[in-house]
Amino acid sequence: MKEPSNEPAIRLVMQPKFTNPDGDIFGGVILSMIDEAAAVEAQRQAHHRYVTVAMDSIQFHLPVHVGDIVSLWCRTVEVGRSSLKIHIDVLAHPRCSDDEKKVTEATVTMVAIDEQRRAVPVF
């Protein structure tokens, strides 16, 4: 297992098209980013095709707003025969502040698969 990266898996500025009627970023947008970040981390660990099999836990701590720079930091916390369990911290940096806060965290399980979609060993 590789050490955690010193860079976020994804960093993106939140746009108005991502908002719900109350002006906050949709939780589903954050979930999609979490899924993508887990795939990036899985690829960083070992080059396979991966599928998401579980989002084991997700906690939304704070809302995300238009203009926030959202960074997703990943670390692989468990390696199984054909799976990786990846923890993701989602941090938001408001555009008018030097403050960065954890807004969401999740744990995702990814499974390595072959061309026939059968599980294969990660390493």
Q: What report would you give on this structure?
A:
By secondary structure, the protein is α+β, with helices and mostly antiparallel strands. 15% of the residues lie in helices and 41% in strands. A five-stranded antiparallel beta sheet has the order 1-3-4-5-2, covered by helices on one side. A hairpin with a 7-residue loop joins strand 4 and strand 5 (101-113).
What keywords describe this structure?
123 residues, 5-stranded antiparallel beta sheet, 1 helix, Thiol Ester Dehydrase, Chain A, alpha+beta, 5 strands
Mean pLDDT: 96
Contiguous runs where pLDDT drops below 50 for at least 5 residues: none
Tell me the radius of gyration.
Answer: 15 Å
**Fourth CATH level, the homologous superfamily:** Hotdog Thioesterase
Globally, the shape reads elongated
Q: What distance separates the N and C termini?
A: 9 Å
Q: How are the strands of the biggest sheet laid out side by side?
A: 1-3-4-5-2
CATH first level: Alpha Beta
Number of strands: 5
Structural class: alpha+beta
What is this structure, in a nutshell?
The chain contains one helix and five strands; from the N terminus they run βαββββ.
Question: How does the SSE layout of this entry go?
Answer:
Layout: E1 10-13, H1 27-45, E2 49-60, E3 69-79, E4 83-93, E5 101-113
Antiparallel strand pairs: 1-3, 2-5, 3-4, 4-5
